[in-house]
Amino acid sequence: QVPLVESGGDVVQAGGSLRLSCAASLRTFSTLSMAWFRQAPGKEREFVAAINWDGDNAYYANSVKGRFTISRDNVKNTVYLEMNNLNPEDTAGYYCTAGSGRYGSSWFPLSLAQNWKNYDFWGQGTQVTVSS
Q1: From CA 74, how far away is CA 107, in angstroms rounded?
Q2: 77-99 in b/e burial notation, b at 16+ Cβ within 10 A?
Q3: How far is CA 97 from each of CA 16, 66, 80, 87, 132, rounded to the nearest angstrom?
């Protein structure tokens, strides 16, 4: 059973919007920190956004701040990425990931959240293509 399954990727024109979803089959979903990364061909995996267990705190990459919003529904075991004002530089495979996110008794800092090595489960990805 695949623990994380993304959906919502599509081809959209610049300036458009998309909402990605990530359905988790993890029983411990509500205790996991969730995040989105993206990877374009020939480029390294890039942090996009992360959200803590309760959904009341989030981090964003500077490149998406003000345009993207991460959220989660712990009843539906789903995390979302609302993407607005998309531009061609947002074209990439988008991957959902989960990890403990714990830093002592707190949520880990951005410096750890943006490192893909600190996550344990990954989805297969969903493709977002933004045409100019």
Answers
A1: 17
A2: bbbbbebeebeeebbbbbbbbbb
A3: 25, 21, 12, 23, 29
Pairing of strands 58-60, 46-51: antiparallel
DSSP 3-state of 111: helix
Name the helix (H) or strand (E) containing 107. strand 106-107
Whether 39 and 128 have beta carbons less than 8 Å apart is answered as no
Structure tokens at 46: 């890039």
Tokens for 49, please give them: 């956004």
Chain centroid, CA 120 distance in Å? 14
pLDDT digit string, tens, across residues 58-85:
999 999 999 999 999 999 999 999 999 9
